[in-house]
Request: fold
Amino acid sequence: MANSSSYDAVIVGGGHNGLAAAAYLARAGRDVLLLEKLDHAGGAAVSAQAFDGVEARLSRYSYLVSLLPQEIIDDLGLRIRLARRRYSSYTPDPANPGRGLLIDNGDAAATAASFASVGAAASDAAAFERFYAECRKLTGALWPTMTSPLPTRSAARQLAEAAGAGDAWESVVERPVGEAITRRVHSDLVRGVVLTDALIGTFARAGSADLQQNICFLYHLLGGGTGDWDVPIGGMGAVSGELERAAREAGATIVTSAEVTSIRPGGSVGYRHEGRERSASAEWVLSNVAPAVLHSLRNGGAGGPANPNHRREGSQVKVNILLKRLPRLLDRSVSPEAAFGGTFHINETWTQLDDAYLAAEQGMVPDPLPCEIYCHSLTDPSILSPELQASGAHTLTVFGLHVPDRLITAENNDAMRARLQAAVVKSLNSVLAEPIEDLLLTGADETPCIETKTTLDIQRAVGMPRGNIFHGGLDWPFAEDDDPLDTPARRWGVATDDDRILLCGSGARRGGAVSAIGGHNAAMAVLES
Reply:
């Protein structure tokens, strides 16, 4: 094969984790080549002008930051600004959409009054706060371990117990989290608010025996030890852009439009670039692609990964919307700015979430479709042009839950995309005082500014198998007591069955979300070897 070259490390995939690994290794003096299939780095952590002729740069796939450690920002000198949102969430009452629960991080009295205004939720206010306070003890104990070698389960439990989080450990790690939710709070609506933290991108029930919902719940509350989800100023592309800058300035070679076609034993990587077949060899190969993709590259596409967790399906529909202004609500006691200022839950009571799961399990699109909305432009209007800002325009990002990949095929994808978009619109309109369709901006071709991404669309665009936003099932952020931890790769949670091939992305043991932790930990394993 022509154009062969040798490096200390070849990184396959230029998502944010791959960029982080490249930056750390290059800063340590290693000769690094990063290969990215797309014509730009950043993977799913990018900003894009999604609508023709409309100057709005949306965080198209990933959108909030919680799990990116300050340690990594400081180590790499990243010029990243994150803005804290005042409001945690707003949830209209499906039984009476003229009222809803607003959780205001800046006003405890207002939050208590909101609980009191929503029927059966009144008695849950104190228990809700106590439960999350106990969870923060657990996450505060575990968060510092995320950029260190893996603790064992027993060691992690000891950290939790030392922090006074023994009960939280039992609720979140040992037993289905649904048990703790139903024991602590009683309102169907409040139970649903808590349960949603366990379900984003995860097809599970509150009582699922494999505890995937528990792991998702823990990761949603783990960031910074507090669980705050912050807005990246300038959009998600600002985060990956800073990681790319750090990697390039440290001396890493980044090649885009370079499709990796094979990874062979001995550190040989084949790839296609500028119409030519090329190869690179290295002492280390770091994989920032999903484990299922890595398996295919190593095995010529044969079979699938042995680890069933690496085959888990995604379970969401993603919709990006650009509005002339925020919509009016049926609940007139809450301003749109407050309601959309945090996470806006729609049709996400405990019962609705479980009914939606059962419908999807039977092959149906849930009706109503549980949805969560996030408005970037309220916190950070810089992603809009000055003209759009002045006009009052806003962005909305919607995640529809319990839409597992099993519902989508290559043959029905177009029809399902339209059907799911209609289901999202219907769900939104159930709590609005005016149709969302009337507020859509239009692009240069007069097309309404709304785009919908199915799991298959996500797989095709950014290479996430089955549209799984975590690259597969999530893992606990600790090793089991009998797991071998006899190599740096195993100690850092980045090992594969080949000692010279490491996971550096969301498929690593502490992967998932925009965190750069997978990239950091893979780089640490290399530098420790």
